[in-house]
Amino acid sequence: MTVQFFFLQHNISxxxxxxLKLFIKSIFKKERKGLDSLTYxxxxxxxxxxxxxxxxxxxxxxxxxxxxxSEQPGQIIGEVYISIDRVRDNATTLxxxxxxxxxxxxxxxxxxxCGYKDKTPQTQKEMSAAEDRxxxxxxx
Length: 140
Prior knowledge:
Blueprint: E1 2-7, H1 17-30, E2 35-43, H2 45-56, E3 64-68, E4 76-83, H3 84-94, H4 98-113, H5 121-138
Parallel strand pairs: 1-2, 2-4
Antiparallel strand pairs: 3-4
Helix pairs in contact: 3-4, 4-5
């Protein structure tokens, strides 16, 4: 069970990475999902836009894209791409800190891989509540 962080854009600070990796693993345990490996790639708006266009056929900026690369049930393999540019802008728009918004999207990607959705108002509400639980538990 591995969690890795890669930084294609280095203008962000992610402190206490060991504790964060353990917490991410605990999300999967709590949700009773088997995690094999999870890779987070922190990148720019432009980098993520190209992924969005190429793989999802969407021509717009987004803060996060999660790919479930699992080949077998119960052994989750995932890649989570996070735009640092979007995280910064969203933090300003939402009136929160960059650190909190960064952790929210990190947890958001893990929750997607655990089965949470966010396409309808109801599933958005459930995802948001799960993110809030993660944030409050992680930062207590």
